[in-house]
Here is the input.
Amino acid sequence: MDSTLLWTAFFVIATFGLYIGIAVWARAGSTDDFYVAGHDVPPLFNGMATAADWMSAASFLSMAGIIAFSGYDGSVYLMGWTGGYVLLALLLAPYLRKFGKFTVPDFVGDRYYSQAARIVAVICALFISFTYIAGQMRGVGIAFSNFLHVPIEIGVIVGAIIVLFYAVLGGMKGITYTQVAQYCVLIFAFMVPAIFLSLQITGTPIPQLGFVGNAENGTPLLLNLDRTLVDLGFQPYTEGLKSKLDVFAIALALMVGTAGLPHVIIRFFTVPKASDARKSAGWALVFIAILYTTAPAVAVFARSNFIDTVNESTYSVEAARGDIPAADLPEGSTPGWFYNWERTGLLGFTDHNGDGRIQYRADPATNEVTTFDRDIFVLANPEIGNLPGWVIGLVVAGGLAAALSTAAGLLMVISSAVSHDLCKKVLLPGMSETQELLVARSAAVVAVLIAILAGIYPPGFVAAVVAFAFGLAAASFFPVIFLGIFWKRMNKEGAIAGMSTGLLLTGAYIVHFKIGFSSMVLGVLAVILAIAAAILFLGTRQAGKSTPALMYSAGGLVLVGLLGLIGVLPDIPMGSSDQWFLGISPEGFGTVGMFVSFAVATAVALATKTPPQDVQDMVEEIRIPSIHAHPVHGNAPAE
Amino acid sequence: MTDIMDTNTPPRTEDHDVTEDVTKAYWRENLTLMGILLSIWFAVSFGAGILAREWLDQFSIGGAPLGFWFAQQGAIFVFVALIFIYVHRMHKIEQKYGMSDDND
Here is the structure.
């Protein structure tokens, strides 16, 4: 393993150096550079950057493993995390680019001529991005501790400093070009082992063909795997356990959520024109599809290969201790990589029946593979494919590239939400460009510090990051952006009502079924709401239309929050899965939230007055790519 | 796919002062194209990959049941194709109405 460690260190240091070099080269000089890379990123590069931004540590390391374990049910992630790009390309990206501003709250605030709508959007964007970034930083820390044998804390801090360096220095411009480099690293690192594995198991170098190909015995690989799994007591691979409605809801929530995620949307502000936004979404999906169509193939290869080589193999205690090289073991012995990964704690073997062989079964009473980390399938691929040690180093560098690129994109959303949407547009409208840049950079530093803390002491909600980020984006941003473009009659009352209902309903469902409303959680929620109320108060005061009631409610909420944090509020127990609404899991509830949000927004809009003429003209103009901006929507009219 | 058959005023390309009729026709054509492509989007993922999966699984593509294949591979390939078809068709439509944002 020593040469592997050296190679890993080499690849990690080399790629980190590359990212820093790019950051120094792509420094941002203006707010235009900082927020949207000067609007001049070519669509192909933006596609690559979007793909890296989009594919997180979870896509790179965990997805193939999740599919390998869940078979057909894993399809929701494959379809859900790609189908959203069709919605983006057709429904949102070109129009948002034509709108021509910096952020998602910019669009919401201007289109709905309302500071309150803008502030609600800022709060959604911040909440979604913080949940997501905490998970990425944790991933960076784990990669460091597993492969470079440094403590998780140091790993998180090193990763954070690298991201900070190019995000603060280069802003969107720096992030874009580092993401292009990170895409190249991660896709190479993912494909090399996949191609060798495909060659070894199906005889074809193209994993997508291997997926539908035959195993060594001539029967189709998938049919073979189905039969083997059934023999061992598992569900057949091509069948699922989830209900059809739940699969439908999860896939739709992930698709719509993808289209509504602020860090994905802002990437489309960086290209020169509306037509480039479409092209760019197409390229992004091509680059994502390379990994996403390979992952299910890797899943099948890895699960089949695991059963073939590990199940009923003879476990060698000497090889596990490292006394004899695993290569010298006789035929039918447990392969060498099993012992290597057992040492890292990602695999574990307990010889229940004492026969010295490994039995892999569905029944926990007889199953002897007692620890089975889902990330093992991607991590162990290089060794399973008998590839040299440097490939493992490459895979680690790829995983880090995936995590860092996503973290950087999220950091950008947080930084621009604070400096541009909150400070410039709401609290301190008189700020100069230099001041705004300074605030943006400081906000990025503060956000990184919070992300470091969240990575070292992961809060409970990190486990529910998929449900939260996608569910909330699907239920809050997607409906208001979509209606804002396609329905001129849509007004601010409808937007605020739709966004808040979607957010609160979906958020409450996820918290209830994923975390539970404990006193602590209630306290934290009350504090978040108090901050929101205070910002609303300050923001609307600028327009001279504030009500002191907002400030009083903020004060009251702070008190409730303190009570919750010291544990005085009642603990409401977490809901169980048999109480799910129509059997829809928290991951899929974003779909319900979205429909409710659409319904509420439409109903409220119809019951209230039509939006002003200049806003309707702006919508008209957004729909046509060639007409250049009138100064009409230069400044959002205050409420 | 859909070529317009209505008899709108001929599109003008030389300036940006487009009439309301042309704008409406352009928007209608865009929405029709979107409708068609989104129906395909729905059909390959939610249709073939989820709702009609068991029925499609009686057929196979290579060694994979067809419904399962759509859910794990096919839908993604179609998604990529849909976006590029949209890019291409919109380029045509925008040129026809003189609304392209291409400078060349």
User: Anything to note?
Assistant: The two ends of chain B are 26 Å apart (CA to CA). The longest helix of chain B spans residues 20-51.
